[in-house]
Amino acid sequence: MSSNNEPGTRLAPPQPASPDPRSKRRPGRIFKNPNRSSSSRSARTSRSRSGPYDRPSNSPVPTRSHTPNPKTRMLSMFEALPAEIIEQIFLHSLNLNLPRASPFLNRALSREHMYRSLSLLAFWDDGSNSSACATINRIMVGPLKYVPLSYEDRQRLQKEVFRCKWFTMERVRAQVPTLQILTIHREWINAGVVVDEEQQDDFKRFLARETDKPRRFYGVGPLLDRLAHQIEPPDFYDIMDGPEAKSDKNSYELVIEPMVSVRIEVFNMGEVTLPALSLVEFPEHLLRGRRNGFLPEDVEFLEMLRMASANSHAGTQNMTKTTVNRAALNEGIQNAIRTQNYDAMVCLLKIDEHFMRWSLEEDGRSSANYTIPSDHFLAVIRTGRDNPRLNLAFFEALLRASAESVPTKSSEVTEWIVDNVELAKREPNAENLMNAKFARWLSDWQMGLPKLLQRPQAGRSCQQAGDFYSGGMFPGSFNSGNTSSQLFVKGRLSVEGKQGYHFYKEVLHPHRKPYGNWLEESSFRTEDSWVKDPSPTHPA
């Protein structure tokens, strides 16, 4: 049998040739004539490449048809308003989403003078019983109308501007002197206090930011009703009912610390200190830091907010009580330890201690110990062991914040102590020997801490506690005496106590001095920020 009859193999029967040329062709694409295809392609190419000199002189010039662009739109009635009216509506509504409504509004409202006005509105506490004068109106919003904000509106505005990309540290720092000038106008000039005649020229130059000295001015005027209840000491308000307070010849002293505070002293008997800017709440994203840690400008921003908002100096009268999200702050401390950013960790510790000690005082628990999470100490031990000097600096900073928070039953702390002592024996250089001295003291402190924490508070006075509440940190706070017996308070070593003396002799002496108050220490520079840059800027 032939292969055609093999099982499993079939061939299609042959098709007879059809004489009809219109018969149905087999499916598939018809091939073009190569000659025709190439000629038409070359013709199209030559037409597309031909320039004006390739066409005959009498041939018409091709023109594009002008069809309307569907993307072009007419301005809305609101967008067609004059720019000044749009700006006034924006500042009155304080809706920061308005510039995002259209590209036109974004261009109209994203201007430097608008950023300036928003910054001033967000951080100046105008007070509930103050009326704006023409000078304050001009400083705040220029030719527009200034409308004072309530506390709730200012709180909301602060949270929103902190999230804006345009809201940078440089823009805020540029407006801090203006905020202080606003305070001077409201609490001194508008209150009727007149600077002594021999100082008037210096005072005008200082307000014009032509110079930053002198910073102390004297004047006379009527009773400062707005500040009477805030003057330290608290019982000073009773003196205001005396006959000398009813006259217009009361003596005052004005002390300006650029970028930090404005202090007014009354009758040489009381004073009130007002912060440079009114901070409602530390922004959580700044406290937490970035995924890869803290940039130098992040730390500088936090330091500027801490110093300029009166969350640093003792004796500062903050009319706006600043709040802190402590969970976010402790996340930031862990972030700083993980990324080995010492400055960021110390800044956050200062913010936390200042806020928590004030909270304890407000709650009537001034004798309670200020503590931090013990996990911070363990995080330091687990990180950066390859750099003993930096590792010790981190541990000491946590100790200055709260030595009573050291883990007492941690094998990791014990191992860290032993490792530092053994390292000094193997490599007895100055750095390792210093670490070993600290480790030996820490071993004794760790073993004695449980018993120390079980003791009742010693009830020492503020002088015995190493100037714990000297001067008062908040209104009516920290002045009546300190009942805390912590080893460190505000970063300062209480050398009067037994444990503080041992720390000084065994760790610091003879190469280092006892630690002082670290809340008033800052890397934020204030010296060069008051005098105006001679380049043209907006009026202050």
What are the key terms here?
540 residues, mainly alpha, 3 domains, 6% strand
Q: Can you put this structure into words, describing what you see?
A:
- With 540 residues, the chain is mainly alpha-helical.
- The protein is 41% helix and 6% strand.
- The chain has a 5-stranded antiparallel beta sheet, covered by helices on one side. Strands 6-7 form a two-stranded antiparallel ribbon.
- Helix 10 (296-308) packs parallel to helix 12 (342-362).
Number of helices: 17
Shape: globular
Return the average pLDDT rounded to an integer. 80
Query: How far apart, in Å, are the first and last alpha carbons?
Result: 111 Å
- Strand element count: 7
The largest beta-sheet arranges its strands as 1-2-3-4-5
Question: Helix and strand layout, with pairings?
Answer:
Elements: H1 34-49, H2 83-93, H3 103-109, H4 112-123, H5 134-141, H6 151-162, H7 169-189, E1 194-195, H8 200-207, E2 216-221, E3 250-257, E4 261-266, E5 270-275, H9 284-288, H10 296-308, H11 326-338, H12 342-362, H13 375-382, H14 388-401, H15 411-426, H16 430-454, E6 488-489, E7 492-493, H17 498-508
Summarize the structure.
Residues 56-70 have a biased composition (Polar residues). This protein is mainly alpha-helical and 540 residues long. The chain has helices spanning 34-49, 83-93, 103-109, 112-123, 134-141, 151-162, 169-189, 200-207, 284-288, 296-308, 326-338, 342-362, 375-382, 388-401, 411-426, 430-454, 498-508, and strands at 194-195, 216-221, 250-257, 261-266, 270-275, 488-489, 492-493.
